Amino acid sequence: IIACPCALGLATPTALLVGTGRGAQLGILIKGPEVLEATHRVDTVVLDKTGTVTTGRMSLQEIHVAEGADEKQVLRLAGALEHPSEHPVARAVAEGAAERAGELPVAERFENVPGRGVRGRVEGREVTVGRLFDGPLPQELAEAKKKAELDGRTAVVVGWDGEARGVLAVADAVKETSADAVRELRALGLRPVLLTGDNRRVAEAVAAEVGIDEVIAEVLPEEKVAVVRRLQGEGRTVAMVGDGVNDAAALATADLGLALGTGTDAAIEAGDLTLVRGDLRVAADAIRLSRRTLATIKGNLVWAFGYNVAALPLAAAGLLNPMIAGAAMAFSSVFVVTNSLRLRTFRETPLQSGASLT
Questions:
Q1: Per DSSP, what are the bridge partners of residue 216?
Q2: What is the pLDDT of residue 352?
Q3: What is the pLDDT along the chain (358 residues), one digit of tens a residue?
Q4: Among candidate residues 219, 71, 77, 88, the one with its CA nearest the CA of residue 154
Q5: What's the sign of the alpha-carbon dihedral 338, 339, 343, 347?
Q6: What is the rounded radius of gyration, in angstroms, for the C-alpha atoms of the chain?
Q7: Residue 314 and residue 296: Cα distance in Å, rounded?
Q8: Long-range contacts (CB closer than 8 Å, 24 or more residues apart) made by 216-221
Q9: What pTM was computed for the model?
Q10: How far is Cα 218 from Cα 43, in angstroms, rounded to an integer?
Q11: In this structure, are residues 44 and 35 in contact, taking their beta carbons and an 8 Å threshold?
């Protein structure tokens, strides 16, 4: 009677059932039990910038054109070339150009260069938009580009026929809850790292706003995996939080991948945890819930196994009444289930900065 393994059989599945159920209520989808062990070991969390720390909804803020260039023409050619792209910066340029310059022409040829921009042929001109322009910038454009980057904006250079014609400043606002999320991640003993393909000035401005010290900027999409592996090579256990197609490989490479549910299907499929809401604070809640679920499983196993270890010698020696043995076996099962049900009381971390989730 005392050796009945009921409690051992209940220890893990009940905690997993309650923990994953509570996570689903909070918008946290846990793919499997092995994820729980990964959250316990993680010490570094890599955060993608666009769409994760920031809103990802960029808008065209400023337009600077070179001497002799026509602002409307710069907008029309840049907007036409950016229109086929799905990148947040490209969408901002295309939408801003359409608002200011009217109907956009159709690009005759379009090529997306990941992490650097786009190039193609529009109205008979070979146009580049982004970081693809290699020539020197006129002084006024160079100053406008530097100022935009110092202000934490993304500077997009527009050029054709071998000359730079304009600089477009695109801004992406930081999510109201990102600073709270970073503080909570630090409280969990994690070291936050900001990872982005944007230039270093923009990345550092965003990092300073949310409280991140370590910044890895100007990284091409295919280099994100190498960054994760380098951090792992330094002895860190890495969690990656991202939302885009470009983040999918890094999410799969990291020891723990957290994909925002507001992102792409590729990122969600690659992640170990899916955060249904686009709020970065849910990442901290997901790690806290996973760690608490793992602790509950361990506590259940210790209790379920412990009472056997203590009582079996007594039973073998004939010193244990069968009625007491039956009661102890039943109590251990009830304890394991009740202890697991405590996970239902898990709560989200309250906002610390007064930011609104609505």
A1: 195
A2: 54
A3: 777 778 888 888 999 999 999 998 988 888 877 788 788 889 999 999 888 898 877 888 889 998 888 899 999 999 988 888 877 788 889 889 888 888 888 888 888 887 788 888 888 888 888 888 877 888 899 999 888 877 778 888 999 988 899 999 988 778 888 999 999 999 999 999 999 888 787 888 889 989 999 999 988 878 899 999 999 999 999 999 988 777 888 898 999 998 887 766 777 787 788 888 878 888 999 999 999 999 999 999 888 887 777 788 888 888 878 888 888 888 888 889 999 999 999 988 765 544 444 3
A4: 88
A5: positive
A6: 27
A7: 28
A8: 219/115, 219/195, 220/114, 220/115, 220/116, 221/114, 221/115, 221/197, 221/246
A9: 0.70
A10: 24
A11: no
What gap in Å lies between CA 100 and CA 294, rounded to an integer? 55
CA dist., res. 273 & res. 267, Å (int): 10
Supply φ then ψ for residue 231, to 5 degrees: -65, -40
Determine whether 48 is an active site residue.
Answer: yes
Positive or negative, the Cα torsion across 178, 183, 186, 187? negative
Of 117, 57, 132, 130, give the one whose Cα is nearest residue 88: 57
What span, in angstroms and rounded, lies between the C-alpha atoms of 180 and 60?
Answer: 27
Catalytic residue among 43, 48, 134, 265: 48
